[in-house]
């Protein structure tokens, strides 16, 4: 029987009291039980940003990049983000923030209230659409300051912002479809979602090909065309991310991770982890404790 613990989420609901008080004390940050709203936030100075770490966020994030740039990985997909980008991240996403420029500033919302965001969107809309979204953020900032607090209005504005970002992205998908590019991109996204969901137990190409109702050869060709990477690159990357979460946040031993992730033995898992990361599971745990 698998008695291993669940992966811990990084949640603003579990923020250290001192960190939350730091947020509340800043003029450009609003914090209550429904959301954290940040205007013109300097990413390097925000206490809820962890660079060069892999973590799993509990709550959705909505972000407008106002200045600067960065390198992030969200649910196995690498992104170069820069001024003018819009980022919509669902709860339970696996995120790596690999680099942030010193001048990076954002407007951001961490949604503590229940709101449905089915998939991540990282997109650079037109300047007109971006400005409209920014005005919605500013409207939300004004509304949250009204006393008594208007919870329904706040929730409806949040839903409108999410809906507008989704519609902006949908218009791009329609353009891709007209250009004949949509099928390849959609299969790639479906594949990554399947890997993200199943990598703890399934790491074979035939399994994922069967889930997508295509042949292993076709799957390999599609993934290579869409990403210039192999199928196993994405499967191994997801497996490493999941293993890092278990090793870091749960403090599992290598044999426990091996059992949890359906490896034949602790030795097999340790060899896999060292091949992919350049260090043993124990060495990785030691580096995260520094």
Write the layout of secondary structure elements.
Elements: H1 17-25, E1 29-31, E2 35-42, E3 54-56, E4 61-67, E5 69-74, E6 77-82, E7 86-89, E8 94-100, E9 105-111, E10 121-123, H2 127-144, H3 151-178, H4 182-198, H5 205-211, H6 216-227, H7 231-249, H8 254-260, H9 266-277, H10 281-288
Antiparallel strand pairs: 1-2, 2-9, 3-8, 4-7, 4-9, 5-6, 5-8, 7-10
Helix pairs in contact: 2-3, 4-6, 5-6, 8-9
Please state roughly what percent of the residues sit in beta strands, choosing from under 5%, 5-15%, 15-25%, 25-35%, 35-45% or over 45%. 15-25%
Biggest sheet, open or closed, and with what strands and sense?
Answer: 6 strands, antiparallel
| CATH superfamily membership of the largest domain | Regulatory protein AraC
Which value, in Å, is the CA radius of gyration? 20 Å
Name the CATH class of the largest domain. Mainly Beta
SSE pattern:
HEEEEEEEEEEHHHHHHHHH
CATH topology of the largest domain: Jelly Rolls
User: What's the arrangement of strands in the largest beta sheet?
Assistant: 1-2-9-4-7-10
CATH architecture of the largest domain: Sandwich
Observed structural traits:
10 helices; 290 residues; Arc Repressor Mutant, subunit A; Jelly Rolls; alpha+beta; globular; 10 strands
Structure, explained:
- It is a single chain.
- By secondary structure, this protein is an alpha+beta fold.
- It folds into two domains: 12-177, Regulatory protein AraC (Jelly Rolls, Sandwich), CATH 2.60.120; 182-288, Arc Repressor Mutant, subunit A (Orthogonal Bundle).
- The protein is built from ten helices and ten strands.
- A hairpin with a 2-residue loop joins β5 (69-74) and β6 (77-82).
- α2 runs antiparallel to α3 and α4 (182-198) packs across α6.
- The longest helix has 28 residues, at 151-178.
- Residues 1-8 have low confidence and may be disordered.
